Q: What sequence folds into this?
C-alpha cells in the first residue's frame, strides 16, 4: 500500500478528527457539569425541589381575585405536567384573623393563616395536628417572617427573640366571623425555611373557614409545587407560557442553564460536524490510497486473496491511529475538566475532577464509528476493483 | 471438479463465429485429468476465453459452470475461494508485483494457500533455470524469466483446473519443454484438468482433447 504518499491530506484529516472529537467530548462534559452544578442551590427534601407559584398580577388583573386565583381545572392542568411531581394549593383564611401575644408582650397584628398538605412541609413536628374542639393550634412559621419580626421589634419597643423562646410564647389567635369571634391559643411548633407563610393544620383552616366565613372556598392564590428539578428548562418554559410566577425566582439558575446548555449543544453539534467532515476527508484520502495501489490490489484479488481479508488488512492499519487520536482527545478533555474544576470552580464538591463515564463511553463509540465507517468504505472500494 | 461451457460467445463477437468455432456457441464439458489444448490464431478470443473461465471478465453470453454452478452466481468471496484452492492461472501478460523480488512474488502466492513448502520454490526455479534471479526485482527480469516465474507461481497452490494463456510465448523450445514437463508433473500430482490455449498445436503437450477456437 502506498500509504506514505500524500501525507498532508492524511495529517489534515487526522488533526481534523482530533479537533472534532475534542470539541464533542468537551461539550458533552461541560453539558454534564452544568447539569450537576445547577441541580444544587435550592431547598430539597427527599431529592425534590419545592417552590410556590402565583399568577402574575398585572395592571389588567388587579382587583379581580377570580383572575388571580388558581381554579380547580387549572390546578388539575398543573398536576398533569410530567416534570411536576406533586401540587398542593395553599389554602388561605377567608375571615379576619388577629394575632396577639396576650399579656406576655404588648404586640398585636392582623395576620393571615394558610394550610398546606403535610408532605409538602419541610419541618413537620408530630404535634402539628388539630382536632375539632381543641383550643390549642400549632403553628409553623416562616423563618423569614421571624427574621423580619426581629428586625422591626427594637423599633417598636418589643424584645428580640430567639427561636427557642418564640416557641415557648403562647400567642392568641382571634378569628372573627360575621357575627361571632373566637380566640384560640396558638403555639409555634416549628420554623420553615421553605414555606413563606403562617401555617396551621389543614383541617383546622377548613373548619375555621366554614365556621367563620360560611363559604367554601376552592380556589387558591398560591400553589405549592413538588419538583424533580427546579432548573428543568421544561418547567421554566411551561411557567412562562402560563404566565405563572415563582416565589423568589428559584428558576434563575434554570434560565441560565437553558442559555448555557444551548451554547454547549451548539458547540457539541459543531464538534460532531467537524468529526463527520474529518471522516469524509479521511475517506477521500483512503480512496486516493486505494486508487494508487489499485494495480497491486487487483493483482492480489486475481491471485485469489479474498476482498474481505484484504479489506480487513487495509482497515486494520488505521485502527491504532483512530484509537490514538480519540485517546489523545479524551486525555485533553480530562486535563480540561481538571483545570475547570480546579481553577474555575475552585474544587466545588458538586463537580468531579474526572471526566464523566458517559464521555468515556462516547469516546469509545466514536472509535467504533470511525473503524466501522472506514472498514465499510474500504470494502466498498475493494469490491469495486473486481 | 467439472468445467462446462454452454453456448459461450463474447458479446463483442458476431454470431457467425459459432459456426466456425469448436468452442464458441458449443456445449463442452471437461473433468479432472483432461488435458485440453485449444488452438487459436490471433484475434479469435483466446485470452477472452481464459478470462471468462477465471471470472476476470463477464462480457459474454452463454454459461460457464464449475461443478454445475454458473460462474456468474459466484460471489466475490466465492470467486476468491475458487481461485485460492481450485482454479489456477498462467496469464499471458504475466502480472507480477514489479517492485517485489521474484521470490517475494512467489511467496505471496504460496502463503495464501500453501500446497508446497518454500524449498519447492527453489527446486522448481532451478528446474526452469531462474533460481539465480529469485532475489531480483520483477521489473528487472526479462520477459522469459518473468514468464517462468509466473508458471512456478501457478503451481504453488492446490488446484483442480489450470488455465494457461500462451504460457510459453517468451520461451525458447528447450525452456518450453522443461516448463511443460514441470506443469504436467504438477497437474498429474493433483489429477487436475488443464486448459491450454496456444497459437498453434503444442507438440510437447499430450492433449486428450484438441479444439480450434
A:
Amino acid at each position: 500500500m502506498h500509504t506514505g504518499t500524500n501525507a498532508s491530506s492524511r495529517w489534515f484529516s487526522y488533526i481534523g478528527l482530533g479537533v472534532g472529537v475534542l470539541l464533542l467530548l468537551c461539550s458533552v462534559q461541560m453539558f454534564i457539569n452544568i447539569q450537576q452544578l445547577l441541580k444544587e442551590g435550592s431547598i430539597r427534601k427527599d431529592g425534590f425541589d419545592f417552590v410556590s407559584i402565583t399568577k402574575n398580577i398585572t395592571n389588567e388583573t388587579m382587583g379581580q381575585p377570580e383572575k388571580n386565583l388558581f381554579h380547580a381545572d387549572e390546578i388539575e392542568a398543573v398536576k398533569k405536567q410530567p416534570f411536576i411531581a406533586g401540587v398542593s394549593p395553599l389554602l388561605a383564611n377567608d375571615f379576619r384573623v388577629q394575632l396577639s401575644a396576650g399579656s406576655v408582650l404588648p404586640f398585636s397584628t392582623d395576620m393571615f393563616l394558610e394550610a398546606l398538605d403535610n408532605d409538602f412541609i419541610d419541618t413537620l413536628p408530630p404535634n402539628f395536628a388539630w382536632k375539632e374542639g381543641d383550643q390549642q393550634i400549632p403553628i409553623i412559621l416562616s423563618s423569614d417572617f421571624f427574621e423580619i419580626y426581629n428586625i422591626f421589634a427594637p423599633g417598636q419597643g418589643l424584645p428580640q427573640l430567639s427561636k427557642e423562646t418564640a416557641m415557648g410564647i403562647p400567642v392568641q389567635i382571634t378569628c372573627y366571623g360575621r357575627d361571632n369571634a373566637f380566640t384560640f391559643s396558638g403555639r409555634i411548633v416549628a420554623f420553615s425555611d421553605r414555606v413563606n407563610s403562617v401555617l396551621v393544620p389543614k383541617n383546622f383552616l377548613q373548619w375555621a373557614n366554614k365556621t367563620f366565613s360560611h363559604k367554601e372556598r376552592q380556589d387558591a392564590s398560591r400553589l405549592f409545587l413538588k419538583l424533580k428539578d427546579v432548573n428543568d428548562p421544561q418547567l421554566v418554559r411551561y411557567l412562562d407560557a402560563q404566565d405563572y410566577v415563582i416565589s423568589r425566582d428559584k428558576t434563575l439558575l434554570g434560565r441560565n442553564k437553558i442559555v448555557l446548555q444551548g451554547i454547549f449543544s451548539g458547540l457539541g453539534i459543531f464538534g460532531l460536524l467537524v468529526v463527520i467532515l474529518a471522516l469524509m476527508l479521511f475517506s477521500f484520502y483512503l480512496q486516493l490510497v486505494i486508487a494508487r495501489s489499485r494495480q497491486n490490489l487487483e493483482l492480489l484479488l486475481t491471485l485469489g486473496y479474498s476482498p474481505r481479508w484484504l479489506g480487513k488488512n487495509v482497515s486494520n492499519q488505521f485502527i491504532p491511529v483512530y484509537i490514538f487520536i480519540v485517546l489523545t482527545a479524551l486525555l485533553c478533555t480530562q486535563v480540561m475538566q481538571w483545570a475547570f474544576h480546579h481553577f474555575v470552580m475552585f474544587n466545588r464538591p458538586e463537580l468531579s475532577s474526572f471526566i464523566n463515564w458517559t464521555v468515556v463511553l462516547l469516546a469509545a463509540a466514536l472509535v467504533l464509528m470511525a473503524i466501522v465507517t472506514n472498514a465499510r468504505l474500504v470494502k466498498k472500494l475493494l469490491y469495486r476493483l473486481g | 471438479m467439472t468445467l462446462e461451457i454452454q453456448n459461450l460467445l463474447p458479446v463483442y463477437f458476431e454470431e457467425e463465429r459459432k459456426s466456425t468455432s469448436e468452442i464458441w456457441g458449443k456445449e463442452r464439458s471437461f473433468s479432472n485429468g483432461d488435458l485440453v489444448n485449444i488452438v487459436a490464431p490471433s484475434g479469435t478470443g483466446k485470452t477472452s476465453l481464459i478470462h471468462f473461465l477465471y471470472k476476470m471478465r463477464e462480457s459474454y453470453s452463454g454459461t460457464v459452470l464449475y461443478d454445475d454452478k454458473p460462474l456468474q452466481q459466484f460471489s466475490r468471496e466465492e470467486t476468491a475461494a475458487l481461485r485460492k484452492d481450485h482454479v489456477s492461472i498462467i496469464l499471458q501478460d504475466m502480472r507480477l508485483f514489479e517492485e517485489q523480488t521474484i521470490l517475494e512474488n512467489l511467496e505471496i502466492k504460496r502463503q495464501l494457500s500453501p500446497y508446497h513448502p518454500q524449498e519447492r520454490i527453489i527446486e522448481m526455479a532451478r528446474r526452469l533455470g531462474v533460481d539465480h534471479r529469485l532475489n531480483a526485482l520483477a521489473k528487472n527480469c526479462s520477459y522469459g524469466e518473468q514468464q517462468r516465474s509466473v508458471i512456478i507461481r501457478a503451481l504453488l497452490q492446490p488446484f483442480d483446473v489450470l488455465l494457461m494463456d500462451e504460457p510459453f510465448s517468451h520461451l525458447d523450445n528447450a525452456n518450453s519443454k522443461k516448463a511443460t514437463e514441470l506443469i504436467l508433473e504438477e497437474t498429474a500430482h493433483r489429477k487436475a484438468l488443464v486448459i491450454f490455449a496456444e497459437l498453434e498445436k503444442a507438440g510437447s503437450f499430450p492433449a486428450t482433447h484438441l479444439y480450434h477456437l
